[in-house]
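Folding problem:
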Amino acid sequence: MTRFLRLLLLKSTALLAFAAFATLAAGDAYATRPEPEGFLLHCSGCHRADGRGIPGIAPDLRKIGPLLQTAAGRAYLGRVPGVAQAPVGDEELARLLNWVLSEIAGTPPDPLYTAREVKALRADPLRDPVAARRALPTPKP
């Protein structure tokens, strides 16, 4: 590898590291982003703009409200990989979860998710969300 390419690679790596750090440092810089915008940016790629999902890939968010009937179901919603690993801060993620459940699923969480709860849940993301969902108690329709 030529000296020029090594230098270019080093500078590119440093720039990427800086960008990643800046993104993490921003944390909840977008905590005031409107929830519909956050949903379109971070969720609609898999769940579609109306929340109906993609069969076999992403579940229909309009049908997740019954999961709130149990503590295990509530925790599951905060631990699925798409939620736990979302590139947003805990405050924005809590607001986004509350909005999705209220506006798309038609089942507002009670109590509402908090940034503190979301932080704890996303610290332990599910490795196999399909198996974890099967293991949940069956919610009433």
